[in-house]
Amino acid sequence: MPIVVASVPGRAAPAPATRAVQPAPSTLSQLQAEEARGLRLQLGDDVALPLPQSLRPSEDEKRARQAAAWFMTGRYRQTTNDFRGAYDAYKRAAQLAPDEIAIYQALIPLAFSLNRTNDAIAFALKAAELDRGNWQLARQLGRYLAAQGKLDQAVQLLQQAARSERLDRRSPGFVLVQRDLGVVQAARGKLKEAAAAYRTVLEAVEHPDQYGLDEKTRAELFKNPASAFERIGEVFLQAGDPQAAIRAFKLAGAESGARAGTLNYNLALVYYQTKEYDLALQELNKYLEAQLQSKGQEAYELLEKILRAQGRADDLVPRLEQLAKADPRNPALQLFLASRYAAAGRTDDALAIYQKILKTAPTFEAYLGLADLYRRLRDVPKL
């Protein structure tokens, strides 16, 4: 609506009011000055000033936002079953934020499902490095690497798991980690380290209540308890801890009554190592008289060692003859007796045993023994 200004008598009518129009900047310096002051969208508005430098996102913040965007993209693609697309998105996120554990937790199972095993292991190693307290991840990765023959890496991860502050030293999980360490260290030939790990396992089995060891965990520890305890006992024995070996061997014997003779053999090994030769012979005789064959010629080699240590080496062959007469279907015993006949110069007796074995149940060992006998006799045509 137009505004009408009344005239006052004797005065000139005032000129119409006009808004002052700011002149456009005419020079580059003036334009730069306007930009420095800010931006005005229209006349009368406040000047919109630039965001202060202190409030602007840093390069790291920009990367973090981009990583979050790619991570959410991966989540979305995964929900739509676009697993390869999700995998690529997660990888982009990991490149932008390499220290974010959540990204690797999403990548690891996806990489395995896409058969990108090498990538999955690399991601898992990175995750274990970032979250050193995650003993479950370290243990799983250590077991996987051990199965691949990468024993040194496996030990490092299992040791990391064992040191985790989140793992109770009196828990079933700790016992499982120590069992894994014992197995891998023994495979590496580190018998002292293996024995140290197995001591925890042995204590837990003997005192299950102190470690919360239930039947489920025990079943996970040992698929074949008798064999497992026997192996553990052998590690203790080789590591120079005969008392722990006896405990393990007795546990092995308790797991299988049918293998009681094997317990006697193992105890004989312990007593031989501790130079208790009478006890060693006593236990070994129990094994031999049970006519077991599980230890093969090792049992007769141990008999020879014990008798030599007692100064009774001449008793070996008569004792072997006695055992062979009582157990004629024991090929390991027959072959060992034949080899000792040959060593004593009783070649006809040795030849008779070899020929009998080759007629009834020929074995490579019998052919090898016969060839060695002919070599001793220098019988080149027959050799």
Write up what this structure looks like.
With 383 residues, the chain is mainly alpha-helical. Among the domains are: 256-327, Serine Threonine Protein Phosphatase 5, Tetratricopeptide repeat, CATH 1.25.40; 339-383, no CATH class. The protein has helices spanning 28-37, 59-79, 83-96, 101-113, 117-130, 135-147, 151-163, 172-187, 191-206, 208-211, 215-221, 225-238, 242-255, 260-273, 277-289, 298-309, 316-326, 331-343, 347-360, 364-377. Helix 2 packs antiparallel against helix 3 (83-96), helix 4 (101-113) packs antiparallel against helix 5 (117-130) and helix 18 (331-343) runs antiparallel to helix 19 (347-360). The chain is elongated, with a radius of gyration of 42 Å. Mean pLDDT is 86; it is low at 1-12.
From the spread of the alpha carbons, the general shape counts as: elongated
Order of helices and strands: HHHHHHHHHHHHHHHHHHHH
CATH domain topology of the domain at 256-327: Serine Threonine Protein Phosphatase 5, Tetratricopeptide repeat
CATH class of the domain at 256-327: Mainly Alpha
Low-confidence stretches: 1-12
Distinctive features:
383 residues, Serine Threonine Protein Phosphatase 5, Tetratricopeptide repeat, mainly alpha, single chain
